[in-house]
Automatic annotation (TrEMBL):
The keyword Membrane does not apply. InterPro entries: Glyco_trans_2-like, Nucleotide-diphossugar_trans. This is Glycosyl transferase family 2. It comes from the Bacteria. Residues 6-136 form the Glycosyltransferase 2-like domain. Coiled coil: none annotated. Keywords: Glycosyltransferase, Transferase. GO terms for molecular function: hexosyltransferase activity. It comes from Nitrosospira multiformis.
């Protein structure tokens, strides 16, 4: 079975990093059919640097600035491979990532989404492996049966660590939501998990960057991300997959309460109180109760060491 993967790299003003991302993709072997670098109206020379590689598998697509979602969506439309992966311009694949994806495709042919674990990587080179849920077998690849409950304890998939059949995106009409620059990738992953099982390898085979200029992961949002509001709304519909509903409620609650906790740290207690008493916030009751305790504590107690466990 010949497997062909298109790697979509959205690019906006990351000339310092993009070559490392592209080289990490083209070095993955024959299964990588192409690397599509979608330049989203950059004002630096990143696109020119990629073109200077003059690599037969690398194609630069230029478009007006429209945000990371529009760039990824353009890559989906332009992709020629049967499978698509997404790699941000300041992230990298590690050796063996695509080979592991190919093995997942062969071992789990009935599903349509495949993913590996990943590292968080800081500018000083320090790497931290992503959380692996305790319900997973950390020694082998597996199908994820309850993905939302697992994710509610810690994200085990990153945008750059999953692969999807291109036809699945078209069939389910799944695209990255336009105008959103944070949580837009989670929205896609959530909808894919509602459509098919995920084949997952616990091997960390990609790195995503922390605290880099123009990186979306360098700051945490103090507002409710739309992806969580939409997840809660979908979970309440009658036709939602019954085996996923409880986990989806729990995941939505974590999204709401994470925003509440950030608001508390910024002393925006009124905004936090408005959010914490919305119904979806209460779906994960123990986390809701712990967050409510934080909300009720005086500001002078917020820096106490024990509070991190609340």
């Amino acid at each position: 079975m010949s497997i062909q993967v298109s790697v979509v790299v959205p690019l906006y003003n990351k000339e310092t990093y993009v070559l490392n991302a592209v080289k990490s993709a083209v070095s993955q072997g024959d299964a990588v059919m192409e690397v599509l670098v979608v330049d989203d109206g950059s004002t630096d020379s990143g696109a020119e640097r990629v073109e200077a590689l003059n690599h037969s598998k690398v194609r630069v697509i230029r478009k007006k600035n429209g945000g990371v979602s529009s760039a990824r969506n353009r890559g989906i439309q332009e992709a020629r491979g049967e499978y698509i992966t997404f790699l941000d311009a300041d992230d990298i694949y590690l050796d063996g990532y695509i080979a592991e994806i190919v093995e997942l495709i062969k071992d789990f042919p009935s599903t349509e989404v495949y993913a590996t674990s990943f590292y968080k990587q800081w500018p000083n080179g320090r790497r931290e492996p992503a959380y692996i849920p305790m319900t997973f077998d950390s020694g082998k690849a597996q199908l994820v049966q309850d993905p939302f409950t697992a994710w509610s304890r810690g994200s085990f998939i990153h945008t750059g660590s999953f692969c999807v059949r291109k036809d699945t995106l078209f069939r389910e009409n799944i695209y990255f939501p336009l105008g959103e620059n944070i949580g837009e990738d989670q929205d896609v992953i959530f909808r894919l998990m509602e459509s098919t099982l995920v084949a997952f390898s616990p091997r960390p085979l990609m790195c995503y960057s922390q605290e880099i200029a123009n990186s979306l992961y360098s700051s945490l949002p103090d507002y409710l991300l739309p992806c969580y509001a939409r997840l809660a709304q979908r979970a309440r519909t009658p036709n939602y997959p019954s085996q996923l509903r409880s986990g989806a409620y729990r995941m939505a609650s974590v999204g709401y309460l994470s925003a509440v906790r950030i608001l508390i740290t910024k002393a925006r207690r009124f905004d936090a109180a408005r959010l914490i008493f919305q119904t979806p916030s209460m779906y994960h009751f123990t986390y809701w109760l712990r967050t409510l305790i934080r909300l009720c504590l005086p500001i002078r107690l917020m820096k106490l060491q024990w509070l991190k466990w609340v």
